Amino acid sequence: MPLSFNERKKILKSANTLDLTPIRIYSEEKGEDELVTVIIPKFKNKVVTKLISPKLKSDHFKVKLDKFGSAVWLKINGKSKVDQIIKDVKKKFGDEIEEEVERITKYISQLYTQGFITFKELN
After folding, report:
1. How far is CA 9 from CA 12, 13, 23, 27, 121, in A?
2. Of 1, 14, 24, whose CA–CA distance to 119 is shortest?
3. Mutual orientation of helices 100-113 and 67-75 as an angle, nearest 10°?
4. Which among 24, 40, 53, 114 could disulfide-bond with 59, CB atoms 3.0 to 4.6 Å apart, if both were Cys?
5. pTM score > 0.70 for this model?
6. pLDDT tens-digit profile of 61-103?
7. How far is CA 89 from the centre of its chain?
């Protein structure tokens, strides 16, 4: 049985973000330049999708990520904790990315808030 909003909120409040394991919800397209485009369906209800989709140009939204966002997205695999993702991204970009812990934890929190990812600890 899925956890309620309040139960998830309680778990996340007491958890250290660096110890959480993010899991992607949506698929992606990867371009030649290593930039990721996340594919998000416009409708979750199958009946609505079946009725309205044929009338639309596309039945999904595309969200393009920058090089840092793409690097983080590709490291989210359901196995790596946030702490490890930060280390891997820092290793890839070196001094090009500053305040990596704050930036990446905030970015991952935004991905969760927008519904792009969930956390293994919540399932």
Report:
1. 5, 6, 17, 25, 12
2. 24
3. 70
4. 53
5. yes
6. 899 999 999 999 999 999 999 999 999 999 999 989 889 999 9
7. 15
